[in-house]
Amino acid sequence: MVSRGEVWLATLDPTVGSEIRKTRPCLVVSPDDLNDHLRTVLVAPMTSGSTPARFRVAIAFQGTSGLVLPEQSRALDKRRLVKRLGRIDDGALAAVLEVLRSLFAE
């Protein structure tokens, strides 16, 4: 089972152009009722080597500082999820969800 707020190592390749690539940690942002019924999940990739911006959320996960990149969110087939790495704290998850709301607001 996959739950909102969990971080999974996910295979993002193949990609095109400026899409974030490689196998990397991704934060599950889709609600659990979707995760329970679909073969896909919505994720926001994470990185430790990118430029901070107002639409990115700074996070410390398992002792590493980095960023969640909501602007690079995408749907992934669950078969791309390699390994569960853990869970972020509720405050960080709330911040990511707020950025996602602002990205899709008019």
Automatic annotation (TrEMBL):
<dbReference type="GO" id="GO:0006402">
    <property type="term" value="P:mRNA catabolic process"/>
</dbReference>
<dbReference type="GO" id="GO:0016075">
    <property type="term" value="P:rRNA catabolic process"/>
</dbReference>
<comment type="function">
    <text>Toxic component of a type II toxin-antitoxin (TA) system.</text>
</comment>
<dbReference type="GO" id="GO:0003677">
    <property type="term" value="F:DNA binding"/>
</dbReference>
<dbReference type="InterPro" id="IPR003477">
    <property type="entry name" value="PemK-like"/>
</dbReference>
<dbReference type="GO" id="GO:0004521">
    <property type="term" value="F:RNA endonuclease activity"/>
</dbReference>
<protein>
    <recommendedName>
        <fullName>mRNA interferase</fullName>
        <ecNumber>3.1.-.-</ecNumber>
    </recommendedName>
</protein>
<comment type="similarity">
    <text>Belongs to the PemK/MazF family.</text>
</comment>
<dbReference type="Pfam" id="PF02452">
    <property type="entry name" value="PemK_toxin"/>
</dbReference>
<keyword id="KW-0255">Endonuclease</keyword>
<dbReference type="GO" id="GO:0016787">
    <property type="term" value="F:hydrolase activity"/>
</dbReference>
<dbReference type="InterPro" id="IPR011067">
    <property type="entry name" value="Plasmid_toxin/cell-grow_inhib"/>
</dbReference>
<keyword id="KW-0540">Nuclease</keyword>
<keyword id="KW-0378">Hydrolase</keyword>
